[in-house]
Design brief:
The protein is mostly helical. The protein has one domain (4-320). 74% of the residues lie in helices and 2% in strands. It is built from ten helices and two strands; from the N terminus they run ααααααββαααα. A two-stranded antiparallel sheet has the order 1-2. Strand 1 (189-192) and strand 2 (195-198) form a beta hairpin. The longest helix is centred in the C-terminal third of the chain and has 35 residues, at 286-320. The protein is globular, with a radius of gyration of 21 Å.
């Protein structure tokens, strides 16, 4: 774990970015335009890469006598987690459609969802690293879990998505909490006849928060398969999660064209899982891991775009005839 000054710098960067987002552009509830979403997506990516450069200059030299490269580990974790986060956007689309969340309230749900994810990821990553340090065999369990998850994702059908009706927390809330029938602006809670009620917006937030636990089943082991440095894995996770919220509004409707992304992510998870269980003498250098992960995802995206272009041309030819 790095010194407190690096954690402080990370905190300042994140707080400054969120203050600009919330205090300047989104002080009032409103629908997020694609232009604003692209702006903040670029902002968070730029901050993450700048932070990576700072790690290269100020932290990497501390590991000069070691094969460990924190900056490379950070970038590998960031790319992996960002790709996994992109895949999770499909789930958010399902949740918002299920609850019929108004566009002007979606930003508020994702904001609180991100804050909850930041807390949970920190807890999960800390527990994971402590478990690996105390019980080395945990590393092999996590590696096997990643391989299993990757294979399962490979053969998962596109329509096997999230069904909010099956969410245990949602069913519990509907049974034991008083819920309004309609939205009350962008509020999670309201009072009716002196009694406190939760709104459908709060139920949507519950589903978002609980599904992040499911996301952690593959994202946390994937990060720990790349690095067991808490500073590296946590900061890279948080930058990816913060970028996800803006990316949702920028490209949420376009993700259906990334047909092969799921298969690329499946291969990445299997690759990292195998990397975790390899004997020490066969360990894959983190630079090679970075190139492999980036290459797999690039091929998946390019193949998806080519497929979308072919289907579009075919549809055009059919309409012409």
């Amino acid at each position: 774990m790095e010194g407190w000054i690096f954690w402080a710098i990370f905190g300042v960067v994140v707080l400054a970015g969120m203050a600009l987002d919330l205090g300047v552009f989104h002080r009032e509830a409103k629908a997020v335009s694609v232009r604003e979403a692209l702006l903040f997506t670029s902002l968070w990516i730029t901050l993450a890469l700048a932070f990576n450069v700072a790690i290269y200059f100020f932290i990497d030299p501390q590991y000069a006598d070691s094969s460990t490269r924190p900056s490379v580990e950070f970038l590998t974790c960031y790319i992996t987690e960002y790709a996994l986060s992109v895949d999770n956007i499909f789930v958010f689309l399902v949740i918002f459609q299920y609850f019929a969340i108004p566009p002007e309230s979606q930003h508020r749900v994702l904001l609180w969802g991100v804050l909850g994810a930041m807390l949970m990821r920190g807890v999960f990553l800390y527990i994971g690293i402590e478990a690996i340090e105390r019980f080395h065999w945990v590393l092999y369990v996590l590696g096997a879990l990643l391989v299993f998850t990757g294979i399962k994702l490979m053969f998962q059908r596109d329509d096997d998505g999230l069904d909010p009706d099956k969410n245990f927390v949602l069913r519990f809330a509907r049974r034991f909490l008083r819920v309004t029938n309609t939205f009350v602006g962008s509020q999670f809670f309201t009072r009716i006849d002196g009694k406190r009620f939760v709104t459908p917006l709060f139920l949507a937030l519950l589903v978002v928060e609980t599904t992040d636990v499911l996301f952690a089943v593959d994202s946390v082991p994937a990060s720990l398969g790349i690095s067991q440095n808490l500073f590296v894995v946590y900061t890279s996770n948080i930058f990816a999660i913060l970028g996800l919220r803006s990316l949702f509004f920028a490209v949420g409707g376009l993700l259906r064209f990334l047909h092969y992304l799921k298969y690329g992510l499946a291969v990445v998870l299997v690759f990292i899982g195998v990397k975790m269980v390899l004997p020490v003498e066969y360990k894959i250098p983190v630079e090679w891991a970075l190139g492999t992960v980036a290459g797999i995802l690039l091929i998946a995206v390019l193949a998806s775009l080519i497929r979308a272009r072919i289907l579009k041309n075919r549809q055009g030819n059919e309409e012409a005839t």
